[in-house]
Specification:
Shape: globular
Number of helices: 7
Largest sheet: 7 strands, mixed
Strand content: 15-25%
Strand order of the largest sheet: 3-2-1-4-5-7-6
CATH topology: Rossmann fold
Number of strands: 7
Radius of gyration: 16 Å
Length: 196
């Protein structure tokens, strides 16, 4: 119920042009919209954190692979998501593991959710605070397997920790995906949707 209430608050803020970080349910609805529009059937996530998005995705996608850098958060996710047979939790660096996962022959029609960044608190800090640009780059050789890409927390680029600028992220997206994907920013997420 709290998730729906948060989503309604987000919708009211949009109507009033009162922008704040959207609630998780609103962001998840964005992911579902991208999946429906692009025909994505598999979900690859970087940044498992507490596994909320992973659990939601498991009910909507055939296969879910989630990557978490922090060993304790990854172990917690393995335990809390063990009831979901279509979920695989991988512990390790998002960019390195993303390269391995997308190369698997069984991965196809994927929606890739790049949310594996340092944001303080108990989140893990890798060699790069915000690896989204590197993540976009490692996916390029497997572009035919990808239906959509969503980069979360667009508002933080160029502002928090050592994140690349918004312009750097957009340049990377345009350079690697501009010919084959529609590129949109909506509700604090950069959306890349495969063109029909």
């Amino acid at each position: 119920m709290a998730a729906i209430a948060g989503h309604l608050i987000d919708m009211w803020r949009l109507v009033r042009f009162d922008y704040e970080n959207p609630h998780s349910y609103s962001k998840f609805r964005n992911l579902i919209s991208v999946a429906k529009k692009t025909g994505a059937r598999q979900f690859i996530e970087t940044g498992t954190y507490l596994g909320r998005t992973t659990r939601w995705a498991a009910s909507r996608f055939e296969r879910v692979v989630t990557i978490e850098l922090d060993p304790q958060l990854a172990a917690r996710a393995v335990a809390s998501l063990s009831d979901l047979p279509n979920v695989e939790v991988i512990q390790g660096d998002a960019v390195e593991k993303l390269r391995d996962v997308i190369a698997r022959p069984e991965i196809r029609d994927a929606l890739v959710y790049l949310d594996g960044h340092f944001s303080g608190g108990i989140t893990a800090r890798g060699e790069v605070d915000e690896p989204a640009c590197a993540g976009l780059e490692v996916l390029v050789p497997h572009i035919a397997k990808i239906r959509g890409i969503v980069v979360d927390d667009f508002r933080t680029f160029g502002i928090e920790f050592a994140a690349p600028t918004k312009a750097d992220l957009l340049r990377s997206a345009e350079h690697h995906y501009g010919k084959h994907f529609e590129i949109v920013v909506h509700m604090d997420q950069l959306l890349l949707l495969r063109r029909a």
